[in-house]
Every structure is written in structure tokens, then in C-alpha cells.
Amino acid sequence: MQTPQELLSPRRATRQIQIGSVKIGGDAPVSVQSMTTTKTADVEGTLEQIYELAAAGADIVRCTCNEEAAAEGLAHIIPRSPVPIVADIHFHQEMAYAALEAGVQGLRLNPGNLRKPEEIKSIAAEAKDRGVPIRIGVNAGSLHPDISSKHGGATPEALIESAELELRYFEEVGFEDVKISVKASSVPLMIAAYRLASERFDHPLHLGVTEAGPPPAGLLKGTAGIATLLAEGIGDTIRYSLTADPVEEARAGRQLLEALGLRERTGLDLIACPSCGRAEVDVIAIAAEAQEALESRNLPIQVAVMGCVVNGPGEAKHADLGIAGGRKKGHLFIQGKIVRVVPEAEMVAALVDEAEKLVAEGVEARLAAADATAEAEAAADRAALLDAKGADANHASVKIERIRERMGEESGPDV
Ligand code: SF4
Question: Which residue in 6, 53, 217, 243 has the most C-beta neighbors within 10 A?
């Protein structure tokens, strides 16, 4: 019997790029993206939203980088993000450099509003040196005015010409680590533009219907455009653009891919932090062990494995259940509230035990059964770790220093 993928048109062959740990294009699974709506300078608020997006199915998250404070926020966010971060750059080249200094895993440039060839080439050259891919993010609503007037408006050909022009600049500096989007709010225009893009380019394509609006109409528009193309074998990564909580975007993206048989359904949703300078345990090993132990039990919950009790329970407070390391202990939490502290060696066993009880008894009952001293013990461990490692365990201050130097050197009008 044919698999669901075999019933759709075969996926068009594209080159493969890699945003952080996520491969895009080639034989990589179609990935889901979303974008934060917080101010990127609000580190804790943005990280909280990134964790929610990851738990809802986002493989990659984009954050705006529109001011120096946003770039400095990224320097703190990136080491603690569970998924790779792409910085969205409009108008100001110096924000691209600042985002690169902050350590972003990808850039998105809009050719419609970052137009000076020398600046584009210079950003591409630096991205090349750092091994950071760029999305050429053409948007029908902000098309380069010269291209728009040449084509009599935002036609599919005009969108493709904008991408081709940017690609030529990139090629001049030998930069090829690129994916392309040609989004429009009109579904027929977007479909036609991507069909053309898939004939012209072998770069991975990022699909989306831009400014689709609030659900349900926004969801329908996004689905009409994205699903049509995916069924034709076009598209390597997708984003719904909804006027709504971005969690709905990530969830819709994931559900669409599952409905088309392009991603597997998951009962258990295990998320893990990336393990930054604060990590107190081997997050990768514990997450793998927990995945193996929990998967077979088919528990329909989100479980978070976090490297430290300083930030873990807060970052993953939207997970049903989680465990965070620290001071040779595991701090078990339900929806961000510490319910039990166990020896480090018992972390996975405690997680499995609590997961089964949580599914059987429900959140309220398990919160009521919490160990009365657990919160206080976790607070003491948190304080001791902060004392031992200081407030800047990820050395963000070094990156921020470089961002400030770059902003001092590079700033100036370029609109
Ligand atoms: S080690 Fe702690 S601060 Fe670092 S990413 Fe993991 S939970 Fe967040």
C-alpha cells in the first residue's frame, strides 16, 4: 500500500540548508516555523513564548531584531532557546550584524526594504563567514518599487524577479546558503508565485500566506495556499501568519503536516532545553532516556526536560510536566510548580512515575499531592546556583559588548 506521502506529488528536489539543528530542503521533513509577538528585548517573556511555540510544534522560531535592545535580548535568548532562532531584519543593515553577533542561527532579509546592493552583499559575506543561512523573504506587500512598477504591480514574475536580484547579490560574494519565500496575502498569487519559484530555483522554499488575518478565515487562507503547494510537492518549511496567539500558528502548521502525512503524529510531546552554560545535568542523555521510557506508555502529555532549576520550571511552565536539574537533584514540576525534589539518579524514574499519575489522576489532584517542602528546596537550590555561577552564565555580556561596538560603528541612515 502507498504511504500518504506517495499519494501526494513527489517532493521537488531542493538543496539542503541547516538552521541550527534543523535541516531544511532535500530529504529533510517539512518543518514548522512561527514568530514571537513579544518584544525581543523582553528576554523572559520571549523565551516563555518560544517554549510555548516549540511545545505546539514549531521547529524554528523567528524573532524581530529591530533595535539594539532586541539584538541584546537575542544574545540572552539564543543559548536558552529549545529551537533555532531566526532574526527578522527590515530596513537597517546594522541590525543584521547585531543579530549575527548575538549568535542567531538564521537571518531573514526583506529585499523590498533593505535595498542597497553593497549592504546586502556585506551582510551575506558576514553570514557566509559565520555559516548562517539567510531567507530571502519577498513579500508582495513590500515589493521593491522599481520591480513593482516594471511588472505593473505584485505579479508572480515580479516576486520572482525580486528574489533573483537578491540571489545575484549573494552570488557575487559566493553565498549560497539560502532559502526563499515569495509570500502574498492573495492565495492565488502566492500559489502562482511559489509554482514559478519551484521551477526557477533549487533552493528550499519557505511557504506562507502573509497577513492571512484572524482565525478561522486566516487559517483557511493559510491552509488553502500552503496545502495546495505541499500536495504538489512544493515547499520545505511552512509558516501560518495569523492575527492570533502565535501558538495557533505553530499548532496549525504541525496539524497540517500531520494531516498530509508529511510529519508523524505524536502522542507524547517531549521538549528539552538546549542545555546552555547553566546546565547542571546532561540534558541530551536524560531527554533521550525519558523519551524512550515515556514513548511506549503512549501518554498524551507535554513533558519538559530542563538543564537547570534556575530557569527551567519558568521557561517550561506551559508543559504539563517537567524536570529540571541542579545541585545533584531533579526538581519535578507540574505546569511550572515544583512538586517534588529527587536525587539526580532518579530523575527519569520520577518523571515516568509522575507522568503516569498525572494522566490517571489529573493536574489538580497531583498539585494537591505535592511535597510541601519542594518549592522551598527548589528556591534554595536556585539561589545557591545563582550564587555559584552568577547572573551571566552564558557570557551574554561579551556578545552584547560586541553588539554595542557594531552599533556604534555601523549605525547611520540606510532607509
Ligand atoms: S540550562 Fe537552564 S537556562 Fe540553560 S537552557 Fe536549560 S533550562 Fe534554560
Answer: 53
Does ligand 1 have an atom closer than 6 angstroms to the CB of 314?
no
Measured in Å, residue 345 CA sits from the centre of ligand 1 at: 19
pLDDT (0 to 100) of residue 42 = 97
Q: pLDDT digits over 24-37, tens only?
A: 999 999 999 999 99
Ligand 1 centroid to 310 CA: how many Å? 8
Distance CA 121, CA 169 (A): 6
- Domains parsed from the chain with CATH numbers: 4-259 (3.20.20.20), 269-389 (3.30.413.10)
Question: Which residues, including other chains, have CB under 8 Å from residue 397's CB and lie 6 or more apart?
Answer: none
The tens digit of pLDDT for each residue in 139-149 reads 999 898 899 99
For ligand 1, is residue 275 a contact (CB within 6 Å)?
A: yes
- Tell me, using a 6 A CB cutoff, whether residue 287 lines ligand 1: no
| Gyration radius of the chain's alpha carbons | 22
Lowest mean pLDDT among 108-122, 216-230, 259-273, 346-360: 259-273
Angle at 335 between CA 334 and CA 336, to 5 degrees: 90
**Does the model's pTM come out above 0.85?**
yes
